[in-house]
Design a protein that fits this description.
The structure holds 2 protein chains of 2 kinds. Chain A is built from 17 helices and 23 strands. Chain A is of the alpha/beta class. By secondary structure, chain B is mostly helical. Helices cover 73% and strands 0% of the residues of chain B. In chain B, α1 crosses α11, α2 runs antiparallel to α3 and α3 runs antiparallel to α10. The N and C termini of chain B lie far apart (69 Å). The chains are: A alpha/beta, B mainly alpha. Chains A and B meet through α1, α2 and α3 of A and α8, α9 and α14 of B.
Chain lengths: 511, 307
């Protein structure tokens, strides 16, 4: 059998970094091929070259036996290569059908297109209404739009970039079912992920990238996840650990919290209630866009709520603004690092002042204490192993993992009573993620209450004492995290949206 | 003295045409995600270059073409600065207005006080003489009908063609459009040139038909009204037509009220288009969901292709 796609010695360098260095591998027709690597290993650059978005500096590609050098995505699509993006390829204010039409070379008339979307979506078990606005769809449904957009072009090679990061476990099962069906029909799939168990369940072959180079190839079914992790990271990682302790008094109590969203496609919060005790980590799971940002805004004080909806040590603080909450001891680290947790063009010292001014006494009668701020920033950099030339560097210049360590460290070193973090390790490499999780556990160990909002279920099971799920702005009743299975969690997250209605009823009942 | 509704309507259509032309062009520009605040500058450059060419060639039609060309050339400066050199769109647009006003004054120095060639009416006398309907439907020159056709064409393109869908997509999210392989910068440059040509044509209509003569600063804020109009219309072509006739109607009414000796201060009527725009803005933004849905999501954002 001849290979569908042969990649031979591809190299691409950007100023200061070689993104891909002499990368070679082959994909057979109908094969599910995993491309595995950490953030920054060069996976995205490689697939962008295959999809024609980036031109390689050197190296050759052969597709279906002929030389293949797509100058632009249009040429790649014409050759039979389709790609499902991780993000950035849907238009929220346009309908499903319009989004699909934009991704096609020669779309049929709108009415025929709607009929074909319905037809393909039913064939592959991915229900979708062509007339709905994409902005109103859940993350899983949005991905269906992208997949159907690709399938309508009858691709020979389907590239999927981190497809499961936004899906519930049940939705992942449905996706895998679709992908296996495609693979049986002869479509090859290039599957990019860093989730090892998924790769073991789905993929036939794996190519592992580290720092732009192919470091290994393996057959995922025949090796352990731990082995692949070591190949990917280049060293073995210790799982975060801590001692058992009895939780203390209730520090943060939320009851009947409802909030209208600030943006048109935001999610309203409905009757959220939970409590967190000293020394405890409460994990809040959920697929992105189910109210995580709104919940963080309500807890941080960016969005004010009813007086009694949030209580800190028994005092109602629902309508207390952010700085007053910081003085009380409630600190937050929001998801968006650049622009929300940190001001991108300001130095690390300036960013330290922005949240630590009050608790660290970095000002005196309106004048800033710059030397104090600088030494605080240096402390954060040192204690949290932030890799940067110094505190005068702009936040924008740090890598995602380093900036996240800085942002979390800046809050933790202010000695909070309650810390709320949203997606603490999103887009962070494995070793930095482990360090951040350990810091969260250490903080709880020291007697603080921590609320950890995350999409990464493995992470939540690792750090949480109790787990609850946020689904369409409603929060499930918390359950002890230990011993919770992925399937139970999936049902708490609302199962697969729009599917298996019967299975979902239990999860939907507000607690 | 009584105000005659027929002549008022005829007058308001004429008075509205310059701002309608400029607004429909700017609407396309903004739908592609670019905010060009230089409409006033492009209009006055269109007014002066159209006037110069019409006077020298003796043909009003060459003048209109020249006006559109002049506006497009000025907008090309904006396109290069914002799309290739990634300058800030607000600052560049404001600079374009100031530059256009100054350059137009320089170009037009020798042309003050001259009369341009007449622009003929399109339809024969007999049709224009039909009572009431005649003057309203047939009593205008070609450019008025061109402006109406342009509104219809822009509406059809945005709502029903693939080119319109791509334009809207670029204005909605340039990253997504780029990832799908659309040439964001090229599409935006074309939209900016179209906007410039429309503004220039509107300016030429001012200097060749409305006034008709060249005086320095003769656009007198028409470009700003056109900008307000795009927002007032919530980026929808037919609403832009409605808004233009509403704003033009206020201007036409104002002259007649003065002539009829009705004592309404002129300044009140002068500021009314802006007042109406502010009120409309408040009304549409009171419903957050709808306002944000209408505005192109990438409006005014700098696009830089990465990776």
């Amino acid at each position: 059998m001849t290979a569908l796609l042969t990649i031979d010695g591809l190299t691409k360098a950007y100023p200061g970094v070689v993104a891909n260095d002499d990368v070679s591998f082959e994909i057979q027709p109908g094969e599910v091929h995993a491309l595995l690597g950490e953030n920054g290993a060069g996976k995205s650059t490689l697939v962008k070259m295959i999809y024609g978005l980036v031109k390689p500096d050197s190296g050759r590609m052969t597709f279906k036996g002929a030389a293949y050098t797509p100058p632009e995505p249009r040429a790649a699509r014409a050759a039979g290569v389709a790609m499902v993006f991780q993000h950035f390829s849907l238009f929220e204010a346009l309908s499903v059908a319009e989004n699909v039409a934009l991704g096609m070379e020669d779309p049929p008339k709108p009415r025929d297109l709607a009929a074909r979307i319905r037809e393909v979506s039913e064939t592959y078990g991915l229900p979708l209404d062509p007339d709905r606005l994409v902005g109103d769809l859940s993350a899983g449904e949005r991905q269906r739009v992208e997949i159907i957009r690709c399938l309508l072009q009858d691709p020979k090679l389907l590239i999927m970039d981190e497809p499961t990061s936004v899906l519930t476990p049940q939705e992942v099962e449905i996706l895998f079912h679709t992908l296996r069906k495609l693979s049986e029909e002869g479509t090859a799939i290039l599957y990019i992920s860093h989730k090892l168990e998924e790769i073991r369940a789905l993929c036939d072959e794996a190519t592992i990238l580290r720092l732009g180079k192919v470091v290994a190839t393996c057959t995922p079914r025949e090796v352990t996840a731990a082995h692949m992790a070591e190949l990917m990271v280049g060293k073995s990682l210790a799982a975060p650990a801590r001692d058992e302790a009895e939780p203390g008094e209730i520090l943060l109590k939320v009851a009947g919290l409802s909030l209208e969203p600030a943006t048109p496609f935001g999610t309203p919060l409905r009757h959220i209630g939970f409590e967190v005790r000293a020394g405890e980590v409460l994990g809040i799971g959920g697929v992105a866009g189910n109210g995580q940002d709104e919940l963080l805004a309500a807890l941080s004080g960016e969005a004010l709520t009813a007086h009694g909806a949030i209580q800190f040590k028994g005092e109602p603080i629902g309508d207390v603004p952010p700085n007053a909450r910081r003085v009380l001891g409630i600190l937050c680290a929001p998801e968006e690092r650049l622009g929300h947790a940190a001001a991108p063009d300001m130095s690390l010292t300036e960013n330290a002042v922005l949240t630590a001014r009050l608790r660290r006494g970095l000002d005196r009668s309106g004048f800033l204490d710059w030397s104090g701020a600088k030494s605080y920033a240096e402390t954060v950099i040192e204690r949290f192993d932030v890799r940067t030339p110094g505190p005068d560097v702009a936040a924008r210049a740090l890598s995602g993992g380093n900036l996240q360590k800085y942002v979390i460290g800046r809050e933790i070193l202010q000695d909070p009573d309650v810390l709320v973090v949203n997606q603490p390790t999103w887009g962070v490499d494995a070793s930095a993620a482990a360090a951040i999780r350990q810091a969260i556990l250490d903080l709880a160990q020291g007697g603080a209450a921590v609320v950890c909002i995350s999409q990464d279920l493995d992470e939540l099971l690792e750090v949480s004492d109790r787990f609850c799920a946020l689904n369409e702005g409603r929060l499930s009743a918390p359950r002890p995290a230990r011993g919770l299975s992925m399937e139970e969690i999936g049902l708490m997250l609302g199962g697969a949206h729009d599917m298996h209605e019967a299975d979902m009823e239990a999860a939907h009942d507000p607690a | 003295m009584v105000i005659d509704p027929v002549t008022l309507i005829v007058a308001l259509i004429g008075a509205s045409t310059p701002i309608l032309l400029a607004a429909i062009g700017e609407l396309v520009v903004e739908r592609s995600g670019v905010l060009n605040l230089g409409v006033e500058g492009m209009m006055i450059i269109g007014a002066v270059s159209g006037f110069i060419i019409a006077v020298n060639s003796g043909s009003p039609w060459l003048g209109f073409v020249g006006g559109a060309f002049g506006g497009a050339v000025l907008s090309l400066i904006f396109a290069i600065l914002t799309q290739y050199l990634l300058s800030n769109q607000v600052a560049t647009g404001l600079a374009l207005t100031l530059f256009g006003l100054g350059l137009a004054a320089l170009m037009g120095e020798a042309y003050a006080g001259i009369s341009p060639p007449m622009t003929p009416d399109l339809f024969p006398e007999a049709m224009r003489d039909i009572p009431a309907l005649g003057p309203i439907l047939f009593g205008h020159d070609l450019i008025v009908y061109v402006s109406l056709a342009l509104v219809a064409a822009v509406w059809f393109m945005l709502a029903h063609t693939r080119a319109g869908l791509i334009l809207r997509a670029v204005g909605e999210s340039h990253e997504a459009a780029h990832a799908l392989g659309y040439k964001v910068v090229r599409i935006r440059v074309l939209a900016i040139l179209f906007g410039g040509a429309c503004a220039g044509l509107g300016g030429a209509y001012l200097s060749l038909v409305r006034v008709p003569s060249w005086t320095e600063g003769m656009t007198a804020g028409a470009g700003w009204i056109a900008l307000a109009l795009v927002v007032f219309a919530s980026w929808k072509p037919w609403r832009a037509l409605l808004g233009a006739y509403l704003f033009g109607g206020i201007a036409a009414l104002q002259l007649r009220l003065q002539a009829a000796d009705i004592n309404i201060p002129v300044v009140l009527l002068d500021m009314s288009p802006y007042l109406v725009t502010i009120i409309v803005l408040v009304l549409i933004s009171s419903d957050k969901t709808r306002a944000a849905l209408n505005a192109p999501a990438a409006l005014g954002k700098v696009f830089h292709a990465s990776g």
